[in-house]
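Risk mitigation, structural track. In case the binding assays with sulfopyruvate fail to produce interpretable data, a predicted complex structure has been prepared as a fallback.
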Amino acid sequence: MVSALTAKRQSPALDRPEQGRTPSKAAKLRDMLQSADLRFIMEAHNGLSAKIVQEAGFEGIWASGLSVSAALGVRDSNEASWTQILEVLEFMADATSIPILVDGDTGYGNFNNFRRLVQKLCQRGIAGVCIEDKLFPKTNSFLGSHQPLADIDEFCGKIKAGKDSQTDAAFNIVARIEALISGWGMDEALRRAEAFHAAGADALVIHSKQSGAEEILTFCREWGNRSPVIVIPTTYYRTPTDRFRQVGVSTIIWANHNLRIAIQGMREVSRRLRQEETLIDIEDTVAPLGDVFKLAGNAELEQAEDRYLAKHKSAGAILLAATRGSALGDLTRAKPKCMLDVRGTSILQRHVAALNNHGLSDVTVVTGYKAEAVNLPGIKTVLNDAYETTGEA
Ligand code: SPV
Ligand code: MG
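Fallback model:
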């Protein structure tokens, strides 16, 4: 039995990337799901948390419905529309190169709504979607009890419609079984597993809200690894990871822990700043600002600016202001004519201001007669001792 559980699952030839071509994100996820080793994917709920999951070395991202909803400030009850979720997913996919498995809840309606969702997810470079066999609008599995389940045939139609609509052959449709959570028992869970597998699901999620993993482990043994099984050990977190490995689990989802640490971190810093009214003991406890710019990819923008941004040559101006202006008699005895005052501002000052206003900030003034009287701020001066013989230019 154990050898059947740990036997290598084979990818269909269809999903193999052509020689020399980078596999799509969907193909990477398909390989993960079908690999004989236990793999892990981690929750993210926006572009930033998706980057952090990738940075930590995870091979895939769980775009959790609970977390994305909570980060948007709404309930995990399909209060955010599917296109609003799609917007978030687009940021997450653009920000990362590892595959994203999306929590598609119940598929946002019937088979028709779901197949449109699948097409849009393929367009956005999402690697797969997981749908659960409950009713729209969904309720989080950890709330209440005995939530109604979808009719098996109706749900199988949804899976088939999704598979027929995907535009990336390696896109993954994962069917999530809620029979254990809803109290319908192991036989019903296995019956559903069989039906969803036959309908074309690429993998199954078997979900449980018990504090121990017994029912999950039993399901995996009974299922015998006929298709990849994903588990979400949120409530049965005490179970050693090797127990899942031993029963041939394909993938573990850490479903909401980036959201929950973010809540804790934001609460803590807000509470302390409200109380302490100073950053003195806070600054060293938060991510440095440089880290924020690094995560945002500012270094790349700087390089791109060097490559693409037009460089404006800075222009300068030279003002010839060396002569006395002897025709003005006594008025220019102590200063050159450029420094004569016209309604509170010298002629030179007026010239310099006009040049500055047109973007010419580098102004050089050629001085000569009473050069020491030319004392405007923000200009350079050069002295022409021979101004009397060299003329204006
Ligand atoms: C989610 O992360 O939104 C899930 C997993 O659906 S759970 O909350 O465990 O149901
Ligand atoms: Mg969910």
